[in-house]
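Table 4 source record.
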Amino acid sequence: AYNHAVEWTSGKIPVTEAARLINVLHYRGAPDHAWKLLNQYEDKVDRHPPLQTEKAYLLLNRGEDQKAYELMLDMYEDKVLEEGLSRDFIFLSLQNDNPDAAYDVLNSINPAVSTEADLTSLVEVALLRDQPQMVAIITEKFGRSEILSTRPIFATALSIAKRSDDTQRMINALDLNELSTRNLLQLAQISRQ
């Protein structure tokens, strides 16, 4: 697939299509090939948000968090940070002592498209990084009953984080046999904080 992609891109396909192909290679199990293809467009990355986004995902995949953060910070400042990178950007912003950027991105997340796993991860990050202001923002933005009623794991995690009186009732209401290992580990981690 990589060789075909290289042949195809030698005709200088549009950058957006190249970014899509890089994404496919990356998430179909060929991140090294995706990186090689991205390198052919390195001179265009700074001017094209789709390529910036794919480069950030690849850097995260390669464990190059600081480089990914610097790229995402540029994207954030240019107002082109893709929402899919929000959780990683928030975490890395807190790690790099930039809580204002983290809070700003947190406030920009669309609750309607946020998954329960992503929201629960945000609570986990807030507690791991000792960020009570972040818990307050999460509560204000995502603590509405219509969100909490459809995301019971997130609701329980938020209840634990806020040390609510009804936390034990919420934990008891969860069907622990239906939770994934990831969910169980997240709730355990949140409970330990």
